[in-house]
Amino acid sequence: MRNPEIRSLPVAVRVFPYAAEKRKEHHWAGSSPLERGTLVIHTAESTGSAQKLTFGIYGLIVGGECLEEGLFYADDLPRREIQVLQDYVVRRNVNVARGDHRRLRLLARCEFLDMFFQLAYKARCHVVGFNLPEDISRGV
Fold first, then answer.
1. Is residue 41 within a helix (H) or strand (E), and if so which, with residue range?
2. Is pLDDT of 24 > 60?
3. 17 located within any domain
4. Containing structural domain, residue 76
5. What integer pLDDT is reported at residue 99 of this predicted model?
6. The pTM is what?
């Protein structure tokens, strides 16, 4: 029996942005990425035979403005490496007021996946990332 809660999503493997004047020539289904929002993701993997996620970066862009940026890290990342990420976020946020959308966030992988689900599936924002099919198959 088919679950009515599950709906398919269109996926673009490669994204080629166009200049504003050319974008009008292309008619995509649904709203434009600027209206709906775009979640941009890039991840870093460990090297070696078993590549696995170590950390990633993301940005949420709506209406051409970056509303949120952050880092996320693997659940099994060593504590000292998480501390490096925490120190970076603290240094980056020194001159940014609490509640300001320019504040860099640091999320555990499970927190990021919850946000990813809410934005990509529930809100239907566009998702852009290099090597995204592989990253998503690994659970981002």
1. strand 38-45
2. no
3. no
4. 30-137
5. 78
6. 0.70
